[in-house]
User: Fold these one by one.
Assistant:
Number 1:
Amino acid sequence: MAEIIQMMALSPTMNEGTIAQWLVTEEQDFKSGTALCEVETDKATMTYEAPLSGRLLKILVTAGSSAAVGQAIAVAGKAGEDWKSAMGSDTSQPLETNPASTQAALPELGAVQPARAPEAPPPAETSSTARLPSGKAPASPLARKLARDTGIDLRGLRGSGPGGRIITRDVQAANQAPSAAPSLPKAQPSKTGTAPANAQLRGDSQPVSRMRSIIAQRLSESYRDAPHYIVRCVIDMERLLGFRNTLNIGRGEKISLNAFVLKLAAKALEAHPVLNSSWQGSSIQYKPSADIGLAVAVEGGLIAPVVRHCEQKGILQIGHELSDLVDRARQGSLQPDEYGDASFTISNLGMSGVEEFSAIINPPGVAILALGAIQDEAVVRDKQICIRPILHATLSADHRAVDGASAAAFIIELKKLVEEPALALL
Amino acid sequence: MAQISYREALNRAMVEEMKRDDSVVLMGEEVAEYDGAYKVTRGLLEKFGPGRVIDTPITELGFTGLGVGAAIAGLRPVVEWMTHNFALLALDQVVNEAAKTRHMSGGQLSVPIVFRGPNGPAEYLSSQHSQALASYWMHIPGLKVVAPAFPADAYGLLKTAIRDNDPVVILESEMLYGYKAEVPEEEFLTPLGKANILRQGEDISLISFGRPVHLALQAAVLLEQRGVQAEVIDLRSLRPLDEDTIAQSVKKTGRAVVIDESWPAASAGSYIAYRLAAECFDYLDAPVELVASEDVPMPYNHALELAVQPSVDKIMAAARRVLYLEAAHG
């Protein structure tokens, strides 16, 4: 069988060589060790000794031409063999036969074990609050500085670094989730917009209201027991905003954006029922309907009224029910069956102007979707930079019931539906 | 712009400087008749004659001292060491004479000399010929030390070094002599003490010099595929060290991996890691990582020879640690 003879690295730094002359001609027999040709390397002219015995069938690189290390320079074989039989599909590509060249000594890109993407950190499977012998929490200097600057008390944080070290992303997470973040009192005035009311709180001690107590208990339990992880995506809102404007032309009661999101989320939940479930310890209960809660800020706390059977209802009905529920939530007149037992929850802080945030899962659901403000951003479409209204969506999911792949599939499904609302008709 | 090799860039720098200034002379083992052990001085004997391109005996202490004396007397010698491994024999002349004469003469004398040659491992060279000795020179006040990783820097730094009025040690790399890249055809000088940011990034700083810079660049490509923007800094000079550039970068990224092909103890890399810890303490989200050669004499076995040196894999592992991309534990 005919074989390719490749250019060899004749010095450690040689990447290519020039054939000075061939010492064996085509159709001539040679023995292993015979000088086949002379090669000018980067340092000197060297003879190239045959690595095998046989007949030189074909010279591919003629005298005066150069070849990269690993490139085929000739074909050898038995008398009468077709030299073309040795040629693979592509012989022009240098093969990395000799690790002596600088490039070849470096590992192939693919050989490196892939790192986990930073978008999906492993926050849940870490230790609980760790302590140094001094009683301080181990924390990176940058995390300490960030905590000082933003008024976060490190003592209440769980570190996701090695040995429970609190690292920057832990402090950032605490800043994004005010209900779970143990902030230092001194930082509060600068962080809140309602200065007059909060100014009265300075130095005060107040009994915890029943609502705060329930929030504290339920969300502590959720954050403690449900291993939260976060999946983010960026959604182009141009189509949906246009669609909504069209539908709202001449309409008395405008359909809110939240109504669209509830409807499209219900559609996405139909395709991904894993997200529409409840962790029961020894079983996972998959809900028969998409009962979607919407977190509403009210005096002294928050509440999440639920629109039942979103998958069956039209957008007008969802919008109508939602507006009624939100109004009554703010008045404090919701009935218990109007806010309990959401199978999925949405929290929208868009109106407050934050770009993105993450939320704590609202039990008994296994996921919550946090929506930031829709803002014009420069994005790349068809290799052009253009300005689009962009929404940052963040899904927190309970790893006991939902794995990352499912959460990712759900949020991408939702993104597709929002970016192309006509898909919801299918 | 022409693509020329690292060795051609060094050669071009010497030719230009020898044409420009008659006081520039070259000496070393095999630099004249043989065109240099690594062919860096090819053609210089023919161009400038045996009066300025001088083959010396195999005696590093002798010809290095000759160069130092010639520099004090008014010439601008370029002394080629066949490799930095052999320069260990010349330590006394460099450390005690070249580096100290300006200081000890109260500024009356200067030593405008360049010491250059390949540093660090090549391949199949075993323990005595594979050493990365940057810290031997970086340790000494009175010396300037540069380590070009690219042909353009090899050219620009060598020219600046020849014109400098103090002793400059150049750490070249045998493995880079054949490396080709663009070098502007018009003459230019590269300043000593100025790092080069090869790649901008927000998430992690990869800091290196000499040959491992190319590994850092490869790691940066892999990190980018995983959504991590790495800033890659080629120090180019070790002394003076561009502390401003690296500190600024690490204050931005909060994470640093220093890559140095020498051993870890008392090395350029460990000093840089210390400076970063001191300058950037409040900005670090993880301890500074040092990727160095394993702390053993270079093995001859080729697999082991490669295994003890910094690699893209080792840089990626260090990057994952400072980025907290390893599975958290504890």
Number 2:
Amino acid sequence: MVDFGRLPEECILHVLSRTSPEDVCRAAMVCPVFRSAANFDFLWEKFLPFDVDDILSRAVDRIEYSSKKELYFNLCDPIFIDDGKMSFCLEKSSGRKCYMLSPKLLRLEGFEWISLRDSRFSKVAELVDGPWLEIYGTLETKILSRETTYGVHLVFSIVERSRGLDRFHKATVKLGGNVSHRVGRFRGRKRKQPSSNGSNLAAVEVMEPHRRPDGWMEIEIGEFYTRDGDDGEVKMCVVDNNARHISGLIVHGIDIRPKC
Amino acid sequence: MATIITKEQQEKEKMVTLVSSDSEKFVVEQKVAEKSHVIKMVMNCCGIESPIPVRRVKGDILKSILEYCEKHSKGEAQEVMEKWDKEYMDKAEKDLVFFHDLMLASHFLHIQELVDLIAVTFAGMLKMKSPEEIRQKFNINNDLTKEQEEHIMTTFGWAFQPI
């Protein structure tokens, strides 16, 4: 039997360039030739987004790196772009692009701007006391990775004295002719979805909030699929227009990342 | 298939003779041999009159490679080629020694399409495998030093978390 560990580095490099970042990292542990190939700039350049130069030029803080591999891993932690109105990062295992829109990029009804010490963005929005809830956002899909199913997550927290947030809201995510409808709520005990007798909510998914690794809460408000990078603008909205009083919701942004 | 034909035909269709490392002769059309960037360069500078030695490639591998080049010089529909490529690779990956030699030869002869096809197939075999599984399947000795392993874990360690 031949030893594949004796193949020229160039062969292995070609093979690794056809795998994923995650597979490369594991393969680096196989033997010296795999390890050496796994460090080549040629490889990591392939895993970086094609518009990485544009992203770097929009970064608030200059990103330092001495190799493409280092750049790749630096971009796996969120960086601020567009004057801090958006954050960008790569999903480590696949190199696909993730964005988070700050509240400044959203259209919010009845919110006030506040600063929170440990929020990602400098300004977040608190719903003070509105008669209803309306949050709208848009994003050009050409800045996203292609052929990817993205999940859209509203990132939030709730102040101690809140009102009306255990009510169900409607969430819609629309890209071209594809629309996903969801029903969710920001808090409340787990129970069955709203009664379906005569209600038009019966056919839609009911979403519950989850805690994120950064400590904030999030709720998936929908999903969409990017085909060839020319799909147009994705529109996202979260609405509860039947409330009488609703308050205490702090919106930290909308996180858009590939679904597993 | 590479076939041996008469000298008259050879002149008519611009044939070239390739000789493998174990002295097996293959007479193929020039456009088939040209799929290899290296052989193309040799033909450009030395002509096609005398046989071209392909010293680092054995007969069985050269035969298979010429089969690939011949198929890919016909300009058939993409779906036909994709199906053919898949069958070609399915056969190749069943015998890892053959697969290994085919990979080396395609690199040596600089046949870019074949290099890519083999890389994609090999990449598929590495998917979601642990280093130990890869070593076993491909008969690779782990010559990494303890220091190298530790260094790899600092950058790449996250990929070893349970999936």
